[in-house]
Design brief:
With 120 residues, the chain is an all-beta fold. It has no helices and eleven strands. The chain is globular. The relative contact order is 0.32.
């Protein structure tokens, strides 16, 4: 198993930026992917961004492309960041870090989440 701890959420004005961090603990040697999901009030959870730890390949949800950037820590494989720029009120949500552990091929583990609120 793996535990995920997010940090960096908060309140920001429209057009502002935030950087989220997530650190994984536990069976980190089996990590293959780290990513971010979000759930806005009254909406389904959606994928925001994902990062393959083996090949560095990234994927983004359509609503955040060209504004958000997911990256790994250059020194520690078990840390992932989400740089969020040009934030909009629609980005308001609880953001969850997520992990894929070998041999699974889907996101199975989620953190407790961090609140991001964008004011208009």
């Amino acid at each position: 198993q793996v535990q995920l701890v997010e940090s960096g959420g908060g309140l920001v004005q429209t057009g502002g930026s935030l950087n989220l961090s997530c650190e994984a603990f536990g069976r980190t040697f089996d990590l293959t992917d780290l990513g971010w999901f979000r759930r806005a009030p009254g909406k389904e959870r959606e994928v925001v961004a994902s990062l393959s730890l083996t090949g560095g390949i990234t994927h983004y949800g359509d609503s955040v492309k060209d504004r958000f950037t997911v990256s790994g820590d250059t020194a520690k494989k078990n840390i992932v960041y989400l740089q969020m720029n040009d934030l909009k009120p629609d980005d308001t949500a609880v953001y969850y870090c997520a992990a894929v552990l070998y041999p699974r091929q889907f996101y199975e583990y989620f953190g407790k989440g961090t609140q991001v609120t964008v004011s208009s």
